[in-house]
Design goal:
Elements: H1 2-13, H2 15-49, E1 60-62, E2 65-67, H3 69-107, H4 114-129
Antiparallel strand pairs: 1-2
Helix pairs in contact: 2-3
């Protein structure tokens, strides 16, 4: 039992789990912001452009069932906005990582030792003599 508790403690304290937890919390907060953006700003504007349609009121009644396809349209728009924002964030992160990789590659370029430089100079002088 102690071994399992120790393994669980190591699992929880790893950076990946903590990063994931932070990502979930920030993601849910971001989702709430995007939901408000879609419901309170974008969809009313789209409704006005389309002639005053309220998407939340779009329903289809089939016998005793009510199909709320207007709410579905709002959720699709919500998803597309979130997906686009995530795309932009990942694109930005990838750009930063490429810059870091290029800088690291420049820094890691091996410097020639003085002996190698001297030997190359001697080689070049010998080539000029011939």
């Amino acid at each position: 039992m102690k071994k399992m508790a120790k393994e669980f403690k190591e699992f929880i304290s790893k950076g990946n789990v903590i990063d994931l937890a932070v990502g979930v919390v920030i993601g849910s907060a971001f989702g709430a912001i995007v939901t408000s953006l879609v419901n309170d700003i974008i969809m009313p504007l789209v409704g006005i452009i389309l002639g005053g349609i309220d998407f939340t009121a779009l329903t289809l009644n089939v016998k005793d069932a009510t199909i709320c396809y207007g709410l579905f349209i709002q959720q699709v728009v919500n998803f597309l906005i979130i997906a686009f924002c995530i795309f932009l964030v990942i694109k930005f992160i990838n750009r930063l990582n490429r810059k870091k990789t290029k800088e690291e590659a420049k820094e890691e370029a091996p410097k020639k030792s003085e002996d190698v430089i001297l030997l190359e100079e001697i080689r070049d002088l010998l080539k000029k003599r011939k």
